[in-house]
Amino acid sequence: MSAKISMKTLGNSEIKISSIGLGCMGLSEFYGEATSDKQGCELILHALDNGINFFDTADMYGNGHNEKLLAKGLKGRREEAVIATKFGIVREKGEYARTISGKPEYVRKACHDSLRRLGTDYIDLYYIHRVDGDTPIEDTIGEMSRLADEGKIRAIGISEASAETLRKAHAVHPLSALQSEYSMLTRDPEGEILGLTRELGISFVPYSPICRGLLSNWKPSSDNDDLRNNLPRFQGDSYTRNKSIADKLAVIATNKGCSLAQLSLAWVCAQRDNIIPIPGTTKIKNLDSNIAAASITLSAEELADIEKILSANKVRGNRYTEEGMKGVNV
Ligand code: ATR
Question: Region 131-137: what's the mean pLDDT?
């Protein structure tokens, strides 16, 4: 039986969401061989039955497969779920190479395509996945605002945006969420973004809060379907160095009586009260462990011990390849 999970309110909305969500991407693509639909649906239902109602997907995960899988998993129970999906990364099936689009006509088409795949007539939280530097953000948000007026989306979010873009977007239509990578090993949002989201009443949704498994038990392999084998910080000397930081953090987890993955989730949740992480997992056992992590509180002393390790040991290697950085911090 899992621990009970507390609820929060999504920024600038009345939507109630669990204090951690479920990142569904890895069920379709990027982290090695995809799970079967049967297993994926079981995981989604297990999450729902154990208090997680916040499900994160995107049109590009598995080229539409992930949204269809979520629809299948939630069949008959859609109303109990808060579905977040995203548009804006345009890729050919199976290709990582991408272009970014925030053109109004593209936004509308992408929304209709996602609604069809999700088998629903509304999306709870619709994100710009990456910012299109060639289209004024006001135009992109303007079209999303019209979709909201039409009842097709309930709330608007943006992912990996710069502070300037966040302010401009929020001025057109109140934003509900900013989703960016954030973990003990990826602290970029601490510069300006975290404070700004709090100031504007926007929820901050960290993806990869377990650093894509670097803060658990992921290991390099020759599996080309596992994106991490191609990311700079997961390779060669950088991986060895970064793993040694994870090992130091694991000692704190052991002393706390939890796993390093759980410590990672407790740490992101401890940074601000508007933070709602969306760890990804393909396994019910790990899902239960993540649900339990939402109730773990770190003391000031434990947070200081973590800080000591992180400030003395800098992470090596970029978090994405150049291609993956398109539309980040724009
Ligand atoms: P993302 O948001 O990109 O999915 P993440 O949440 O930081 O990234 O990490 C996901 C990785 O952590 C996955 O490899 C997942 O492996 P499983 O699918 O095997 O679970 C792993 N992971 C997630 N929760 C975990 C847990 N509680 N213990 C160990 N590993 C976990």
Answer: 97
Record the pTM: 0.97
Closest CA to 18 of 47, 60, 52, 44: 52
Interhelix angle 104-118/65-73, rounded to 10 degrees, is 40
Ligand 1 centroid to Cα of residue 158, in Å, is: 23
Active-site residue set: 61
Average pLDDT score, the chain: 96
- Domain range list for the chain: 7-211+267-295
CB atoms inside a 10 Å sphere around CB 269:
22
Please enumerate in sequence order all residues whose Cβ is within 8 A of that of 208, keeping only pairs 6 or more positions apart, or say none: 181, 182, 183, 186, 280
What digits encode the pLDDT tens for the residues 72-86? 999 999 999 999 999
Q: Which fold has domain 7-211+267-295?
A: TIM Barrel (3.20.20)
End-to-end Cα spacing for the chain: 43
The span from the CA of 111 to the CA of 115, in Å, is: 6
Q: What percent of the chain has pLDDT over 90?
A: 94
Would you state the structure tokens that stand for residue 160, as one six-digit string?
Answer: 């990996």
Q: Which atom of ligand 1 is nearest to the CA of 290?
A: 27
Q: How far is the CA of 131 from the centre of ligand 1 (A)?
A: 26
- Kindly report, residue by residue over 141-155, the tens digit of the pLDDT: 999 999 999 999 999
